[in-house]
Amino acid sequence: MRARLFDAMAVCAAALDAWISVDSTDHIGMSCAAVACAALVVRRRLPYLVFALTLPAVVASMAVIASLIALYTLSSRTRNRPALIACTVLAVIGYALPWPTSEFDLTSPDAILISLAYSAAMAAAPAFFGQLVVTHRDLSARLAEIEEVREHRQELIAQNVLAKERAQLAREMHDVVSHQVSLIAVRAGALQMSTADPDAAEAASTIRALSVGTLDELRHMVTLLRASTTVRGELAPQPTFAELEVLLANSGVPIRLDGDLPAGIRPPHQRAIYRTIQEALTNIRKHAPGATATVRVWADDTHAGVTVTNTAPTRPVIPLPSARHGLIGLRERAELLGGDLHCEPCPDGGFQLRLRLLTTEG
Questions:
Q1: Most C-beta atoms within 10 A of its C-beta, which of 23, 78, 136, 156?
Q2: pLDDT tens-digit profile of 4-49?
Q3: With 50 as the cut, is the pLDDT of residue 236 above it?
Q4: At residue 179, does pLDDT exceed 50?
């Protein structure tokens, strides 16, 4: 609704400009101005065509509002800088060149320079403003992505801290508390068997029973604490190909999985391939916004691996600090499994990451 309102206002402004600027007896000028005003209705869908339809009105009359609106729309919807520059130059020529051309005074250089300067300023304004809108739109989208990644990283850090605390608590309960309670149970059992006092034997039996029950509860709590450090979504899990589909679906990158996942790959190799894909998708989101990716997992008699290829970014890339620790970790993981990791840019502006692991023993 809002877009339609702006379109209607643009058409009205262009029509008012034509009504003021064009002589009613100038049938050619009026026709060109009418076509220019009508073309603004579809300026969002066909910006290049609409701009071309508004140029005759600029040359044949003084009605320029329609052309300025068309040039702004084109500039705010294109990333083709050479095409935008060419359209801006055409607009400058149209503004500076009088019609008919026989009225063009070549004997006055000052007048020519003033006319060109005025025309260039008038054409450059909507072009620059449109590109400013494109830049603002890209920056907003990029900042939203960065904020999402930051929140996800903070969540992972918090989960990692919580998992470490739970693991430490489980170790302390197992190594210290369970050991002490076990000693209590043993000593209570020895006292129950050696004493002749019925009351002391009954008390020792009660202590031993309570100690055994406490040990069972401690074992159950330790099991729960250790299990809670490996729940899905935290840093401790050891992922396999079974979780790869979820990783691809939640990556935020358009991905095509090339071929079927090979069977018979050992869990350590599956984890290495999973982590490589995870790191590659993270790098695509950071360094190639708007790109698409292709993932191919392969295996033969002696090796297994994965190739992740992404296209060139379609949105401006904002440089972010990176120590490349992710790739270093992947390379070390590959070397531990007798493999190697290679990454290189593609001729089309994309990037490719290749992992190869040795699957044979010995």
A1: 78
A2: 787 788 888 888 877 877 777 777 878 888 888 888 888 888 889 9
A3: no
A4: yes
CA atoms within 13 A on the CB side of 237: 16
Q: Is the peptide bond before 321 cis (omega within 30 degrees of 0)?
A: no
Return the H-helix or E-strand segment holding 358. strand 351-358
Please report, for residues 166, 235, 246, the alpha-carbon distance to residue 285 in angstroms, rounded to integers and kept in the order given: 32, 20, 17
What single letter denotes the amino acid at residue 145?
E
> What is the domain partition of the chain in residue ranges?
2-104, 149-228, 241-358
Quick one: which H or E segment has residue 131? helix 109-172
The tokens describing 181, both together, are 């309670």
Tokens, residue 205: 């039996």
**Do strands 340-345 and 351-358 pair parallel, antiparallel, or not at all (unpaired)?**
antiparallel
Q: Which CATH number fits domain 241-358: 3.90.180.10, 3.40.30.10, 3.10.25.10, 3.30.565.10?
A: 3.30.565.10
The residue to which tokens 């329609």 are assigned: 66
| CA-based nearest residue to 29, from 18, 16, 20 | 18
**Ranges 84-98, 262-276, 287-301: which has the least confidence:** 84-98
Question: How would residue 308 be classed by pLDDT, with cut points 50, 70 and 90?
Answer: very high
In the DSSP assignment, the letter for residue 77 is T
Dist. CA 87–CA 353, nearest whole Å: 40
